[in-house]
Every structure is written in C-alpha cells, then in structure tokens.
Amino acid sequence: MKEQLLVDQYGRQLNYLRLSVTDRCNFRCYYCMPEEGINFASRTELLSFDELYTLSSLFCNLGVDKIRITGGEPFIRVGIDDFLYRLSAIPALKEITVTTNGTLTYKQQQVLKDTGVRKINISLDSLNAERFRQITRRDSFKKVYEGIFNLLADGFEIKLNCVVAEGKNIEDIIPFIELTKAHALAVRFLEEMPFNGSLVAGNSGWDHQQIYNYIASAYAHINRLPAAPSSTSVNYQVEGYRGSFGIIPSFSRTFCGACNRIRLSATGDLRTCLYGPPAANLRDATRSGTSMDGLMEMILDAVAKRKRDGFEAEEAGRMSIHTSMSVLGG
Questions:
Q1: Is 313 inside a domain boundary?
Q2: Any idea where the Radical SAM core domain is (predicted)?
Q3: Is the predicted pLDDT of residue 196 greater than 60, yes or no?
Q4: Least C-beta-crowded within 10 Å: which of 9, 124, 134, 201?
C-alpha cells in the first residue's frame, strides 16, 4: 500500500486524529445532552478495539502522528487499557492524548504513564461544587478536583476545559485564572457550541472577545503566549503566574483556516470538520470487506473534499445542531 499524506484541497495537512471510543458518558452536562440521556449506540454498533486499532494504524500510515482519545467518557469503556497499550506501539505515532471528565483517571493513571500519555484535558466547568452539580447533573466535583492535583503531582500536563455560559458559570472565570497562579496547569475557556442533543439548542455563552475583556478587566498585566499555527486557542499568562489560560473560539470558529484535525466517531463516522456531516462510515466499509487500499481511498477522498472552514461545512451539510457532542466525539 503506497503511503500518502492527508492533504486537503487548500494544502492543509491533517496529522491529528480525534478518536472517539464510546458515545456513553457518566455525566449529563447540559451543553452536551439532555438529562435523560440520548439513544446510545448498541455495543455491536461501536467500532471494536481491533477495528479502532486497524483504522488508527491506517491513519498513521497516512501521516497522522497525534491521536486524542475522546468519548463520551473514554474511560467507561471496558478494555480501554489494552487498547492504549496497543496504540502506543504504533511506530509512527508520536503522541497520544486524552480528553476526559476526570472521574475515572485514578483507575487509569498507571496505564497512562506506561503508554506514554502525558497530556490530559479534563472537562471542568466550575470550581464550585453546587454549580458543578447543576452543569453536569452529577455530584462528582470532589473526585474530579482531587484527581486533577493527583495527576499534576504525578507529572502529567493538565488542561482544564471550561465551557462559558451566561447564567451558568461566569463567576468561575476569575477563580480559574487564580488557579494558575500557584499551579502549572492551563485553563481553556470555550465558547459554547450548539450541540446538546436536545430539541432546543443554541449558543447561550459569551464569545471569545467578551471572555477576554472580562479577564482583562481584572488583571493589569497579561502576556500573550506563542502558539502553533494549528492551535485552536489563543493563549495568555498573567504576569508572575505559573500556569496559563487560553480562549477557544469554538463557536466563532476563527481558527478554522489552519485546522489540522480529522475525526472518527465511535460508530465509524469520519468527519473532516466538526460542523460538517460525516464524509463516510469506516465501520460499515470495514465490515463489508473493504480492503485497506479501499479504506485508504475513502479517507483520502473525504479529505480532498474538505471544506474551507466550519461555516462552509455547516452550510453544505446542514447538520442538525441538536446532535449530541457525545455522539460527535468532540
């Protein structure tokens, strides 16, 4: 099989795969899904770990050198340990990272160390236990918060992802910044995206400029930090603080022009843009006997047709904003 790179029609190389291993989650965050949950995929509909490994290897043969494991909540899937060990042995893969809600990392901490995972993103939308409960509809703040500092003490690089919304957690923004004063962690504030799996969806959050202005009004000296061209966040550091903070314009989508990501959902949907429709289903193709060369051509064809940005992808696909982020894989 001839090796090729994932380069779209605008010359952008995609070397970063966001790989969802499950659509299930033990939280019910209001911006992700309704309180009663969603119609989760059956076990047979999920890609098996063998299929996930085969497809991950194929992506790496096509130039992917970073894989982020996502969900749902990835650590609730039985067998994730062995999968991480197998994934870490792929020669071309330089980095594995994980996005989690932090409730189960204590069970996986040694596995993460053994497999070379050093960077973990933890979704945390409040530093107040009651607001946390209201946002997640779960009473797990203490477990998550203590787990963050256990990971920091064990040498992991931690980013906290906070979705900002009026009436939900605005009063947490400054406490999050203050958390970076003594701790070498990064906080990322995200604009809310309208993917919540409910009948009513919309953006009730602040935009990136409003978030920055709010922070800047509280601090006299904020330094902008350098970032890679493909970075989704604009990053800053309060002068004298150990950690940093960033703002991700996930709804405004100002970073789309340099995006280097491709996504594979737990049920095999391949997306070249979060806001666009699936370009193909690799689970169905794999199970129907499509060869590795055939799968490669499907992926290359999807990338070749990639839209310029999230707005163009959304317009072309007319994807329902009611789709749950748990299904999309983040």
A1: yes
A2: 9-225
A3: no
A4: 9
